[in-house]
Amino acid sequence: MRVAEGIYQVVLPLPFALQSVQCYLLQDGDGWAILDTGLHLPEAERMWEAAFATLGIEMHQVTRIILTHAHPDHYGMAGWLQARCKAPVLLSQAERDFASAQWHRGDTALLALGALFERHGMPGDLLATIAADVAALRLLTHPTPLETQPIAAGNVLTIGNRKWELLATPGHSEGHLALFCRPERLLLCGDAVLSRISPNVGLWPHSRPDPLGAFLETLRQLMGLEVDLALPGHGPAITAFRARLHELELHHAARLDTIEAAVGLGATAFDVCAAVFPLHELSTHQTRFAMAETLAHLAHLVQCERLYEEDGMPVQFRRTTS
């Protein structure tokens, strides 16, 4: 689907409740650049091949593969595409480090995730199910790229006739990048801003101490941009950009209040997660994200001195005021 002059959206399937991810083909002179790649599924292979055929693109015409971040639904087909197109894969250094730890090796990262969730009260049977789920998900990022190149916020990428500013947009992931064409007020925002749901902001073993604080700062920084059209990684394009940013701020303010109330006189992160989310209705994949999101909100409440953390096994959170 053509979404802007010289930009086509490729919608690929996901085996999650989210159902699909949106990747983009950007005309790059006589070639094409790819932004994000999808999860490596047989149906997604066929859909990439169909997109190339529809637009008359030969594999050798792909100039580069750019990743907003290295979550599996954006990173998963980078290696498959690189093997066919012989194009470089570009992403931020923080996302290169994450991909190397999480998808190339994986075992150490999986142990760290289990230790984090166990420390915060998750039962052993659920930990085992989540470990199996993540191990299976890792296979859907293979083959991983043979080589990647770092790109950094503050730099400019020239793609075709457009100059794209690389913007640091951490929160959803540590090294998330968005691409902004200032003259056209056009933003390729990945998962930094979504139209129908709030981007998941989780605390993971590799996260900074307060990922939600980083996300809220990202929203404040983006508020300063003049954006007429934002093309996200999931869901419809965003035309009322500042209004959407404001909605996301309000969502997290309300979620912080809900989580603070759920702590009561003392609770583990898993207790709070079970109180806030209907875990019995969620898949293992969703439960993992719910737990990480709960931890991120608890960490921000500690940072704001609305809660304090009582060390132990498991860790307990308590309110600073009655």
Q: Sum up the overall morphology in one term.
A: globular
Instruction: Name the average pLDDT.
Output: 97
Instruction: Tell me what portion of residues adopts beta-strand conformation.
Output: 15-25%
Number of β-strand runs: 14
**Strand line-up of the largest beta sheet:** 1-2-3-4-5-6-7
How many domains? The number is 1
> Based on the structure given, which CATH architecture is correct?
4-Layer Sandwich
SSE pattern: EEEEHEHHEHHHEEEEEHEHHHEE
What would you give as the CATH superfamily? Answer: Ribonuclease Z/Hydroxyacylglutathione hydrolase-like
Largest sheet: 7 strands, mixed
Which class in CATH terms?
Alpha Beta
Distance between the termini: 54 Å
**pLDDT under 50 segments (min length 5)?**
none
Indicate the radius of gyration in whole angstroms: 20 Å
Mind explaining what this structure looks like?
The protein has about 325 residues and is α/β, with parallel strands linked by helices. It has a single domain, classed as 4-Layer Sandwich (Metallo-beta-lactamase, Chain A), CATH 3.60.15.10. It is about 40% helix and about 20% strand. The chain contains ten helices and 14 strands. It has helices at about 40-55, 70-75, 80-85, 95-105, 105-120, 125-140, 210-220, 240-265, 270-275, 285-305, and strands spanning about 1-5, 5-15, 20-30, 30-35, 60-65, 90, 150, 155-160, 160-170, 175-180, 185-190, 230, 305-310, 315-320. The chain has a seven-stranded mixed beta sheet with strand order 1-2-3-4-5-6-7. The chain has a five-stranded mixed beta sheet with strand order 8-9-10-11-12, with no helix packed on it. A two-stranded antiparallel sheet has the order 13-14. Helix 6 packs across helix 10 (about 285-305) and helix 8 (about 240-265) crosses helix 9. It is globular and about 65 Å long. The termini are far apart.
